[in-house]
Amino acid sequence: MVSFSLLKKQLNPEQLEAVEAIEGPVLVLAGPGTGKTQVVALRIAEILQRTQVSPRNILALTFTDAGAKALRTRLEQIIGIEAFQVAVNTFHGFAGEVIASFPHVFQKTRELVPLTEADQFQLIEKLLTDRADWPMLRPLRAPTLHVRDIASRITVCKREAVEPLSLTKWALAEKKAAKGEKSAIKQDQRLAQASRLEEFASFFGAYQEKLEQTARYDYDDTILFVIEALRQNAEVRAYFQEKYQYLLVDEYQDTNNAQNTLIELLADFFPNPNLFVVGDDKQAIYRFQGASVANLLRFTQKFPMTKTIQLKINYRSTPEIIAAATKVIAQRHVKLNQFVK
């Protein structure tokens, strides 16, 4: 084990502030190489030193299995065997814990069979070939042309916790709004877009019904099952809100809406929960999975008493490399903006 007090002395002022701010909502803006994993680990050690909280009452969520392993290893070096009592998990790993803890609540869920990617493609293909309800999704001469694209859209919807009914409502609202367009061209464009959305919503609903009929579920359904239980079942919600008195989330900018909803449900017992999130507002490497930098903005809006700390010193790269990388990123943003326009 490494001396905790010695490690704290090695921190720069911003890192030390983040480690010692253990009460209330805290947002740490931290880029690559700023020592955020060390900060998260030391903050857990700080909580254990300054409070009567058990390691079992701390939940740290990371984005990948590798991230969870790295944090656990770092924590073990600081607090020893107690590190294995701290709940360090990925979002899906934590969802699995919730389901395992309440078998009577998730009895139906536990009987379901997970759907592989190949299974999902086959299910979508079968729906398209068996029914002619979706002419835009199934071209006449190539009804299975859009299978992969449809699967991708379904995944995005589930990661954003968007249900078929919500899509239908948005499509109807868009049709209504299109009628107010003064330009006939723009009106036609919006109506066409609304029709495509409405058709996809119909297909998405049929897909969900088929999953239920065949007792199967998608990988991304796991978190949605837990969100529903936390919303609908007071016993489940109270248990985990009481159990985890301190919540820490790494790579917060990469959380999608479903994951963010899960975090907020766990934290909503107190107006100013002990919720510590670390994110980089300049990157969102999992944006294709529904991640959104907007979560960083939403966090401060939801919790107005948030303490915001920025880790500025990069220990991994030289100033020249950082300057060059910043220039490249700036140029990429310009090109992306031009492309969007």
Question: Could you name the key traits of this structure?
Answer:
341 residues; alpha/beta
What does it look like?
The protein has helices at 4-9, 13-20, 36-50, 65-79, 91-101, 107-110, 117-130, 147-159, 164-178, 184-213, 221-232, 234-243, 257-267, 294-302, 319-340, and strands at residues 26-30, 58-62, 87-90, 113-114, 216-217, 246-249, 275-279, 307-311. The chain is an alpha/beta fold. The strands form 2 sheets. The protein has a 6-stranded parallel sheet with strand order 3-2-6-7-1-8, sandwiched between helices. The chain starts with a helix and ends with a helix.
Please write out the topology.
Blueprint: H1 4-9, H2 13-20, E1 26-30, H3 36-50, E2 58-62, H4 65-79, E3 87-90, H5 91-101, H6 107-110, E4 113-114, H7 117-130, H8 147-159, H9 164-178, H10 184-213, E5 216-217, H11 221-232, H12 234-243, E6 246-249, H13 257-267, E7 275-279, H14 294-302, E8 307-311, H15 319-340
Parallel strand pairs: 1-7, 1-8, 2-3, 2-6, 4-5, 6-7
Helix pairs in contact: 2-3, 3-4, 5-11, 7-8, 9-10, 11-12, 11-13
Describe the structure in brief.
The chain contains 15 helices and eight strands. By secondary structure, it is of the alpha/beta class. Helix 7 packs across helix 8 and helix 11 packs across helix 12.
Q: Number of helical runs?
A: 15
Strand content: 5-15%
Using only CA atoms, what is the Rg? 23 Å
Low-confidence stretches: 284-291, 332-341
* Sheet with the most strands, sense and barrel status: 6 strands, parallel
